[in-house]
Structures
1.
Amino acid sequence: MLNVYKHSHFSADAFGHGGNKRTAQVTELLKRSGIAFHEANFSNSVATRNKLSPYLTGIGYSRSFSTNSKNKYAIGRYIKLFERFIEINKPELLLWESTSGYNSLLAEILHKNNIPVVGLPHNIESLVTGSKSMFSNKESPDWLFEELKYLAYCENVFTISREERWLLSNAGIAASYLPYYPTVELEKYLLNIRSEKQRLNKPLKNKKDILLLGTFYNKPTFDGYVALLRHIKHQKSFQINVAGFGSELLENMFPGENIRVWGSVSNQTLQELIIRADLGVVHQQASSGFLTRIPEMVLAGIPLLVNEDAARSSADIRGVNIYRTFEELSMLLNDKVPEMPPVLQRPVEETFFTNFVKAKIDRGA
């Protein structure tokens, strides 16, 4: 049996934030397909008493004057950490979700040791506004080609959005599309909410309930919803509910009877908010990756209004209505509420992913 490892910088939690959800999806797919693997543990096991050796390794790796001494030491320490992991655990295949920060070095170290890597980036990090390279200190998007260099070490890169697969393919990197879809447990939870919405079949109120849901610690999401709320905060014909991790950051920014900020909510409260909602609005500044809440809200039965930047890989999802301007959004909000969207089907790309990994294992990687 091949010695397979997987590493993510997030824990697998189907009810957590977007990163947790993607890791939960990948973990469940592997287990459901009977693919045995170990979770790689890169604990701080490298002795730090001799700091000169990692520092010299870091200098040898990064000769850029823009990389400070602290970063050079960290680079050297991570290189030694990954080399030690290979020496002790002898991996024969690694499924690599942690494609950002110092963990980028992992693919290069594995490649140098002839160990195949399958990439599963949660997003192209260098295209996220405000992100910075650990190696050159460049800010986004100027370090895109640095990031592509590490992804190119992979046998195949399974992206969460079609746009990223297209980008990597144009850079000569083997890439496939693995769309996000909730775990079986979360899918059941969302479909139960849909059934309850159908059962209640509420008559349309004079004041529509609008739900804004997201992870507000994510800068493109935070900035997008701030811009949205500034535009619609005076429209008294809506009751706007804002919920999700970090949404409490908005609590004092938008006082008003028609806006309620719920903060991080329990599953029970989230269920109640979704059942109550007539529409969901998803508004994000330009970024990479994919918004996991889009298919989840559609599964739960909420018609969505989504701006162009947020609608990555979502244009073909029935129930997603894309708007380009705030004026267009206002027209859609004041129009009649769209019908409940049909249930999403589990994507066939999940089977392609697991078959690819199985084939690697059967061939001895």
Note: Residues 184-334 form a domain with the Rossmann fold fold (CATH 3.40.50.2000).
2.
Amino acid sequence: MEGVSQQKPKSKKRLSATLKRLIIVEKLYNPLGFVLLLFFALLIGAGVAFGGLALGVVIIILIGILPFVYGIVAYPQFGMLVLLVMSYIIFVIGQLGFNGPVGTIMDGLQVLLFLGVIFHIKGNWAIFKSPITVVILIWLAYNILEVGNPSATSRMAWVYTVREVAICALSYFVFMYNVNSIKFLRVIFVVWLVLTVIGAAYAFKQEYIGFNAVETAYLNSTPDIASLLFIDGHWRKFSIFADPVAFAYNMVMPAIFIICLVTSIKMKMWQKVALGFLVLFFLDAMLFSGTRGANVLIPAALFLLAILKYNKKILVFIACAAVFLLFLINVPTSNPNLSRFQTAFKPNNDASYNLRKSNQKKIQPYILTHPIGGGLGSTGEWGKRFSPGSYLASFPPDSGYIRVAVETGWVGLIVFCIFMFVILKTGINNYYLIENRELKTYCLAITLIIFAYNLANFPQEALVQYPSNILFYMWAAFINVTLRLDMNLREEKSQLPVLQPAA
């Protein structure tokens, strides 16, 4: 016990000495550091004297931003975690009363991370060599060329839309270059799952306790919102996300990921039980969203899982899941969440689905006669803002694929489908190439998530809202990262010295 009690003061002394060296000796005793400290102190004092306390606080924030920006560029792993967290809390920040350009801040964060890649890469562009990189660049180039679309009624709509497409695509290069160890890959997955737990827990709060004042004001702000979110006497929940659709899909994807872990990696029984509880927790929260399109994603992902991992254990698991699903679809219920879940598997009886089918049928002649579409941003909110009164501005796309077909034409739709196909094909190929069991499981889970996003993008726009737009390109990058890490491990093993048997 004496040794233990003596160790703690020693460790505290070492920590104190380290902090003294880093903060006082290397910074304050440094002439430049002393001058900067004095300058900032005078600046804050002058701000308070001439502009009041508010100006002083603003100056302190601005001073704090500089090292923060430096940290993002110099330490990209820190920056990626900040980007991931920000993509989840971006709408919460608005609820807290911050009325600044949060979207622009997110754009700036992604650009900074990309500049950090350019700063560190030193000409080693071969690291990005992949079919996925090629199709991402082709898709980006096609969207940029849309600026010259003769059918477009607004160039400003193109500016706003292409910014979203191009800047989010930068995160692919950021994650692909900077994730260079299994350890950091695990850190990202843990942070992602923690954020999902927070999102699910907040949805339970909205369901059983109620909305806060800001959320209530938003729900009552316009009749259109109530018509979309108040269904059969029950409010659809959106948790910390932009809308119920983004919330639902961001509950399903982690559930798919965990199912892959449980069925592919050896672990203790209590770990499987804990992860199984998380899956049920996420899927239960998902039902609060009332997003029918999300309900079919788990069965579809399990079907692909059964194909890619063809073994008795997986087939038994899928069969049990199928029986449970059939029970849920057909069981009589008065629960509005479960009732809405059941309608996802009986779409022809749903008025909303039939309306969407009718709208898509009406727009088909336009798509066929406009091979490169009506221009980026010609539909939806940007269409209403920049091209009010136009034919496409009043068209509700209600589908990621339909939006692509309308705005970029059937040519753009073909390019986009090839883009998705190549990512999925590369994921499946890499899954069979990877030898390390953990990395193999990660690649499989990511491929299933990409597959689920493809299906989700048909009934809804699954890839336009935070955090899905960031996560999609992150998953695309990780398909390559898992194979690269596996190849590095194999190379390290091949370089190990071979032990000679004793004589």
Note: Residues 131-486 form one domain.
